[in-house]
Amino acid sequence: MGVRTWLESWPVYRQLTGSDPLGRGKAAMSRRSAELQPRTETADSMARSVCPYCAVGCAQRVYVSDGRVTQIEGDPDSPINRGRLCPKGAASKNLVNSKFRQTTVRYRRPYSTEWEDLDLDTAMDMIADRVIAARAARWEDADSEGRPLNRTLGFSGLGGATLDNEENYLIKKLFTAMGAIQIENQARI
Amino acid sequence: MVAKERGAKIIHVDPRFTRTSALANTYVPIRAGTDIAFLGGIVRYILENELDFREYVLAYTNAASIVSEDFRDTEDLDGLFSGYDPETGVYDPTTWQYEGQEAAVQDRDPVMERETAMPLQHESHGPGVSGRVRRDETLQHPRCVYQILKRHYDRYTPEMVERICGIPPEKFADVARAWTENSGRERTTALAYAVGWTQHATGAQNIRTGAIIQLLLGNVGRPGGGIMAFRGHASIQGSTDIPTLFNLLPGYLPMPNAKLHETYDDWVTSICHPEQKGFWYHAPAYCASLMKAYWGDAATPENDFCYEYMPRINGDHGIYKQVLDMIDGKIKGYLLFGQNPAVGSINGRAQRLGMANLDWLVVRDLFMIESATFWQNSQEVETGEIVPEECRTEVFFLPAASHVEKEGTFTQTQRLLQWREKALDPPNDARSDLWFIYHLGRIIKEKLAGSTLRRDRPIRDVAWDYPLHGEYAEPSAEAVLREINGYSLETGQTLRTFGQYRDDGTTVGGCWIYCGVFADGVNQAARRRPGKEQTWVAPEWGWAWPGNRRVLYNRASADPEGRPWSERKAYLWWNEETGCWDGYDEPDFERTKPPTYRPGPEAEGTEALAGDDPFIMQGDGKGWLYAPSGLIDGPMPTHYEPPESPVRNQLYGQQANPARKVYDRPENTTHPSPPEPNVEVYPYVFTVARLTEHHTAGGMSRFVEHLAELQPEMFFEVSPELAAERGLTHLGWGHVITARGCVEGKVLVTDRLTPLRIADRIVHQVWMPYHWGPSGWSTGDSTNDLFTMVLDPNVLIQEGKAGTCDVQAGRRPHGPDLLEYLREYRRRAGIEEFHHTPIITTDAAEASHRCGRTDDGGA
User: Fold this and answer.
1) I need a labelling partner for B415 at 20 to 30 A (CA). Which of B353, B390, B395, B592 fits?
2) Which CATH code for domain B661-828?
């Protein structure tokens, strides 16, 4: 190590001679901190997304490394939020990665006091059976004056308004095909 | 705040001084639920001082239109309009019509309209009226809209505003002056509201009052103007455009009604209103294209596009009715898609008792929310009303994919669709709701494939072929969006505009107002040209319906001759040389229709719109200061007290909205309000709102460490004066009591809440956030438990922002003692058994009922 290199490794020297007299930037860096890179730069991929909370529609950049979301930031390109996010949007990485996240199917039998595990395919099949039965239980062909009704009042649905348009579209389409008119959304609330 | 930096003045009106108030130029306190009195005062100020933007008002609004001579105002009938039927509790709107058009509404069924929230159809377009209206351009005719409006708001003086809202006259004068001075040729003012404004028994009329002001001042269809709804959910706009609502189909097409729409022709004709001006005239094409999207090859012109498959509504099938039907055991199963009604919906106890009486419940969510665990940890388990061993509801919890684990579009609050790319696969069993509904449909179709039952034919025929991809067989969201956009069956090409939709079965289109989002086979919602690289309107970021127009009715940004009202506010203008409308935005008008165009006497639909009719979705092409049709509770907004109020209506004998929707049930008792006795048992006004750090029912925030840490517990705010009156201490415990429930929290004593002088007494307000429930990092009582179900009659949205309550120091009783505590309060209020406030509190109901009726000589 030459004298000059040795001297320049000394932060006070760099602070006094360089472009960082307050010692809050370059002068204070160690080799390690100089080589650090933001995880947004080392991410495997970045997806352009939209914040899931309120309806302002702030654009987000979602960074993924090793199959895990490592950062979510406001998208500076967006004319709506210009890179900014509110406390909720800024916490959305935590929403996705929350320890409370329930990622497996849970099942509670009638009169039971606890949850059980259930296979997803089995659950889907059981739900389909129950929908078909509830549909039949309160099916109505016509009203008292013989006008067609073609509907069931046996089950209902309620959706949050964080559903995608495509999801709402298929929900309404399937409910209509089943004659299930009782479908509502946060938009009513 | 950027607007403020650039010189805009911000006025913040709120029951509580908030962080927004702190940054505004002016803060105006108001009693919750009195917005129409306040805004009505502004309307009066504009009209008394003739401060309206007269050229705009004359050319673009219905100010000059003449109304039927049978019309009677609330001024004549003590708070009722003409046509009220005390038996059904709704109005016959015949006398509200424009002169000569009274017959146009004779076949209407106002009871059915309220039960099915029919006015909600008008979100994309005005209700049907004929374009041929008698007008008085001098605005002097006593029955022209301008004069009617002037008389209607004559008593909404600054003194009256103070008596009702508690707003000091000097504050009111400040707002009135600022708003009018900042409007006109050179300037515009924007009105922004949070959707708590809709959650009132007069919700639709609150916003109507704002619209009247903005039209009078020329602030609609112009840059920097408008009425901006700050919706609270990522795609709540999308959820009405492509609704999962009982009374609507995509694009605001009405759900077929058994009584009104027996045949396909009945249905289509009821939508397109022959004789009407505007784009709704093409409804047959929108209807046929939707039927093709639903029923595929089975739908043909010969079989009326399988219209017989469509289920029919014939009354109230809304969410509150559903909850009561669950309590009564009529509904067997319930599917929740990312919604937490156990905390988020009003009268939470009724919600939870309903869920406890189902055969089965499916909950799809990221977290184990209270709507999945009501049988484990709800307040009713504590009181013994729900016993897990006796509760038969079978519960399926299915984990959902988060917003980054699936692709699709949200429609944000200004009708802008933005496509989200998928960042990664969802974990374990988590799937998108698209996956769930697609595969549920697939399995049901498979199970019923061999059925010969007539009722199963729609399921067998429904067009359900979507490309699947990936390990989980995820349906393609882009394919669904393409179907929503619409395509030609002849060429296979996606359509560019809804003008290309056909009524002969040659086009498929799932939602006509979204046509263009997949123009040229390209997902336009995925456009991400940086804001800095385009104009301030940013037309190449995402895609807005209709037709990528960013400001609706923007023809009004130019004068009748097509010139900008001013250089400063130039937005759209007629270019004589090219024969086109030019500007910063897509014209919300036919591009080549010149300002001088006048329709012939036989013209219909869009051809009937003159070159200076900017309001192209209205039947007469005009902005409506007065709504002759389309609203259940009156053609003009009128101040009524909230259904629960500690004070008498200062303007009329009629206390509360006479057309409001009520549910007379023991689970849904309402407090006494004047003129009834015992008002003092629940003497205070309460309102609820959000914190920036939490989201609605907390399903997406109480389970998130950072957010739970930022706002770690339930609290409520009271003024120092109320604290003294009830012995509440800052940071000590307190609880709030209504007939429906009781919630506890830490007390925040603060002068952010001001005691208001209302009429001749002081009214205290209590403010509460409504995010908490028994699960998550941070737990607490659910404030929406306190409300009763009373709904706005136009759209069936609940009164969820103004109620009456009592407040006491200390913690609430827990366990069965809580029920006895609530019962004792009800006993003192004289409502121990079931109680509902009387609907009619004036003697004028009979006189209103007689108005315009020829059978007894008319009024």
Assistant:
1) B592
2) 2.40.40.20
